[in-house]
Amino acid sequence: MTRTARRTLLLAGVVVAAAIGSVALAAAPLGAGPPWTVVLPLCALPIVLAVAAGYSVPACRASTTILVAAADFAGIALAVDIGLLLVLLLFGRIPTGVQIDLVNAALVGLLFVATIAGPLGRRAARSARALVAGVRRTPDELLADFGDRSADGIPAAELLRQLAESLRRDLNASVVRLWWTDDEAAGVLDQQVVVPATAPRSVDRLDDTDLRVLSRAGVAGNGWLRAWLPKMLPDVPQPQAPQLRIAPAVYGGRVLGLIEVERAADTGAFSAVEERALGEVARRLGIVLRNRALDAALKATLEDLRRSNAALQASRTRLVTTADAERRRIERDLHDGAQQHLVALAVGLKLLRDSTEGTPGADTELLDELDEGVREAIAALRDLAHGIYPPLLRDAGVVEALRAAAKRTPLDVTVTAGELGDLSEPVRAAVYFCCVEALQNAAKHAPGSTVTIQLELEPGPRLTFCVADDGPGFDAAGRTGHGLQNMSDRVGALGGELEIRSAPGRGTSVIGTVPLSTPAPVTR
């Protein structure tokens, strides 16, 4: 998409450059126009700007519009070229002296006329239509602003009121009424815009039965309404009854809106041109109303997805926070509870050993074995507690905690890190436990490999960690597990990302990125 847009922008630049060059070439035989030292940079400028615009996202999105504008500019240049050639034919020879000044003036005049010819022609066409049929603007012109601004969050009632005012003015109507609904599934049209606002409202609601009748109506008048929908006719005597024209806005066989145009009885009748214009406006209005409904549904869906995603992230954050708090509690309970009991037991065994030393019949060897067993149990319990939530992580930081964890593994592990600053506890815990999980996976699946752990700060700010081994590797696309899911949940709870890079025979890298700002909690 970007490559195509850049080619389109470059083509637009070339078209503009060619247009400028063609005018200079046409003016050269007449001795008019700027010198080539000015023309050549002017020709190069649009190409340079087009290349630069290729790196602008808004320009790439508008590349087609820019190309159309360039083509319009080329058309103006062509008109100027033809005008200059006509000037040369009128002179019959190369102008000299004072005549060159006249050619320069003619060149400026041609540029001016060619520029304003298009808008003047369109305005003249509208005036001609107004004189012939009373319609000053085409249906496309009537709905241009409505269609363009419908996605800007402007209320539908305001947009429809503006459309009704345009219709009233351009169709020489006394009253214009518009029906629509905010809920297509309701099967009713119950909202109205009445212009002028002082005019009486007609029926308050058009129900599903009325809409089924209207879906086959097209542009209809008093006779059709009298036969099929008499409740829309005003309750006045026939000679004074106003002229009515209705046009349903239909899309996909469903009536999404209705236009009612009313003229006084003593005003000229609706012409065929006006009825066709009204029908075209109604058709376009159906498309616009449908697009607006789709836009609203899309925005609602995106908002639901955003809230669901925020709720999911908040849920993951709560789970990880709760798990870490539970880890700290278990580590504290083991340290302050079971470990202290074992220490007391070891002290008691030592006292018993000392008190029975030299006593005949005392089994000192058994006491020594019990003492050694208790000490080993204390060491194992301490290692277990530190593995659950190491105090070193809280006291010395993530780097020292990882180096301590690396010493407990059978692998050759190197930990490198730059200046990380003061990391928050959730970030420290997420990075530490993800790296330890990756170390355990390496010890299990790549025994004997060399592992490097790298931590570094990046702009954002964010902390990036990488645990890489030179083991046998695996097919990352086909491998899932609780360990990888736990790492992903930890990083995702902080708004970060986790990536596994591996291939058979090429080792494995676990790369994670954690933003250093905590995600805002979701509000519902």
TrEMBL record:
Q: Which EC numbers does the record give?
A: 2.7.13.3
Query: What reaction gets catalysed by this protein?
Result: ATP + protein L-histidine = ADP + protein N-phospho-L-histidine
Task: List, alphabetically, the Pfam families matched.
Answer: HATPase_c (PF02518), HisKA_3 (PF07730)
GO MF annotations, alphabetized: ATP binding; phosphorelay sensor kinase activity; protein dimerization activity
Signal sequence segment: 1-26
Q: Name one GO cellular component term.
A: membrane
The kind of enzyme this is, by top-level EC class, is: transferase
Q: Which residue ranges does the record assign to the Histidine kinase/HSP90-like ATPase domain?
A: 426-518
Transmembrane annotation, as ranges:
36-55, 67-90, 102-121
Which Gene3D superfamilies does the record match to this protein? Answer: 1.20.5.1930, 3.30.450.40, Histidine kinase-like ATPase, C-terminal domain
Alphabetic keyword roster:
ATP-binding, Kinase, Membrane, Nucleotide-binding, Phosphoprotein, Signal, Transferase, Transmembrane, Transmembrane helix, Two-component regulatory system
Matches recorded under PANTHER family: NITRATE/NITRITE SENSOR PROTEIN NARX-RELATED, NITRATE_NITRITE SENSOR PROTEIN NARQ
Q: What is this protein called?
A: histidine kinase
